User: Fold Symporter from Draconibacterium sediminis.
Amino acid sequence: MKEALEVLDNVRLNFSPTGLVALNITIAFIMFGVALDIKIEHFKQLIMRPKSVIVGVISQFVLLPAVTFLFVILLNPTPTVALGMLLIASCPGGNISNFMSALAKGNLALSVSLTAIATLSATFMTPINFALWGDLFINIYNNQGAGDYLVPIKIDFFQMVQTVVILLGIPVIAGLLIAQYFPVLTHRIKKPIRKISIVIFIGFVIALLSANFEHFMKFIHLVFLIVLIHNGLALLAGFSISSIFRLPRIDKRTITIETGIQNSGLALVLMFNPKIFPPELELGGMTIIAAWWGVWHILSGFAVSSFMARFKLTR
Assistant:
């Protein structure tokens, strides 16, 4: 396995910052549609009963990195693949998790709150988790050569604030206000916006695949099973911890999705930042893992959300 994965280190993906901007604009539009189903009272309930929020944060930043570390130890892949998995697990939940929670008929206010908290917390939790678990991996396997890849991660706090405001704050507030003061208009536009959102997401999946289609076709057999199991463990971790703490089923759905949908876009931005990872480092294993995760968690998110939505909420 390790010898086969070594070929990934020389892979160079086509990464487009312009495409990331377009994706962010799309996410803002989707968040507006999601917010049409949220009421201000939902956020008040979370403040009064914060248990689900606390469990969600623990699941995201404590349980998932720990579970990923155990999987990495069992798998013992190449350093770049291992550290790529750990970096993915150290990132906050992806913004599309809110859309997936809406499809799953989960707690949308909880989903939005967890995304906002996780995104801001990532400025210090992502570097801490990547350094902690990455260092443990290197020490256990005595693979000092991997130390070159365990670089200090720096995330601009104000940039993350800007991201939360643009992708979450403005669209959610706009959606809340329109739903509050224009209920007839809201009823008319909710379904069309949801359908358009699904079409847009499918388009982005196709675009991401086509941009690196040759690489995916050539190397997908090496990472497909790894990402599938990793993502499955993430979903299972979110469901398990919310079940242990006996959260309402609607909150279980949200925390499951929030833990299983990771911000692989942030991971790729960090990997392609020459101030963090020097250009001379061969990061093919890390980038392939993050890029395929970005595709796969959309597919698995749709599947899991659709499955959840088939069952009625009893509690």
Remarks:
- The chain is about 75% helix and 0% strand.
- The mean pLDDT is 79.
